[in-house]
Write a structure and sequence with these properties.
Blueprint (H helix, E strand, L loop, with lengths): L1 E3 L6 H6 L10 E3 L4 E8 L3 E10 L2 E6 L7 H14 L7 H7 L7 H4 L11 H9 L6 H15 L2 E2 L7 E2 L4 H16 L5 H12 L26 H10 L10 H11 L7 H4 L10 H9 L2
Antiparallel strand pairs: 1-5, 2-3, 3-4, 4-5, 6-7
Helix pairs in contact: 5-8, 5-9, 6-7, 7-8
The structure holds a DNA duplex.
Length: 288
DNA sequence: TTCCAGGTCCCTA
DNA sequence: TAGGGACATGGA
């Protein structure tokens, strides 16, 4: 099936400009420019997608033998559209880039559309698993989570794929499982809290994916502090906040303050001129 | 062995 | 409102 594109974009950059492509159950094949991703449909069905980009559309091939009706296809398209931010226009950001020579390469290469996960629950868990640890350990924890609690997906593919676990499955396994087998340490309580809030009809975690919803309640999730919240804001399409962590501080102090530590206020105002797009300006400043 | 990583929580003052 | 210790894990 095809998804027509309102705006063309750099498919490879959309996937590899943010680290999520390295986390299970995402599987990026760089040479062929193919993105494999197992997803979950309603009525407890799982399938493997293979996504590629053509001139004016995304092509989605299903690698799982399953009859799909109209609603199934809509669910698939909705999840893929969310992952690649297809409903969002990046033209306002590109217009801003044109006033700044150092960022001209972003519109020139149609970058900025950073990959996100099908569910907000998955992204909350993944962001929590990036805190106070090294990237390699983040990859291990996510891999343990998917291998331990994800469901196997039947597919015409040499690799075995598992889905990202549902909040139900995480709660069923419990906190002790997360500690002993996923090796997330003290983060276990945070993940349990995220799963609980994902299933709480009042909190309704996934509802914050709606554009322009008030996302401040995400701060109530245990383990979501300033860095995690600002990262989640970016994931939800609000780019005006900065993920001030050790990487941010090291980069900014080295590049803009001659290696000398400035005040907190000055440290965090480096990208102010970018207004609504501070996160993306920072991101392409540090990683390009 | 000790330190600390793409932080956050919680308790003091 | 700000400061600082504790927190699990695993690699250097």
């Amino acid at each position: 099936m095809k998804i027509p594109l309102h705006e063309t974009f750099n498919f490879k950059a959309a996937i590899t400009d943010y680290g999520w492509w390295m986390l299970s159950p995402n599987d990026w094949h760089d040479e062929e420019c193919l993105f494999y991703r197992p997803i979950r449909l309603s009525r407890d069905r799982n399938l493997l997608l293979c996504i590629s980009k053509h001139s004016n559309h995304l092509m989605i091939n299903t690698e799982t033998e399953m009859s799909l009706d109209h609603n199934d296809m809509k669910e698939i398209k909705d999840q893929v559209s969310w992952m690649f931010r297809l409903q969002d226009s990046f033209e306002p950001f590109y217009a801003l880039c044109h006033d700044h020579e150092e960022l001209l390469h972003i519109p020139a290469n149609r970058k900025g559309r950073l990959l996100r996960s099908p569910s907000l629950f998955e992204d909350v868990v993944k962001v929590i698993l990036t805190t106070n640890t090294r990237w390699k350990q983040t990859m291990n924890m996510v891999s343990n989570l998917v291998n331990g609690l994800g469901e196997s997906v039947k597919a015409n593919h040499q690799n075995e794929f598992k889905t990202f676990p549902t909040p139900e499955r995480v709660l069923e396994a419990g906190e002790s499982y997360l500690k002993e087998h996923v090796r997330v340490g003290y983060r276990s309580a945070y993940i349990i809290d995220a799963a609980t809030k994902a299933l709480d009809p009042v909190f309704d975690l996934e509802s914050y994916k709606v554009l322009d919803s008030d996302i401040t309640k995400l701060k109530e999730i245990k383990g979501v502090g300033p860095y995690a919240f600002n990262t989640l804001a970016m994931i939800l399409g609000k780019y005006d906040l900065l993920p001030v962590d050790s990487e941010y501080k090291a980069h900014v102090i080295k590049k803009y303050f001659n290696g000398k530590k400035p005040t907190k206020q000055k440290l965090e105002s480096v990208y102010d001129k970018w207004g609504s797009y501070k996160f993306l300006a920072y991101w392409y400043d540090i990683y390009s």
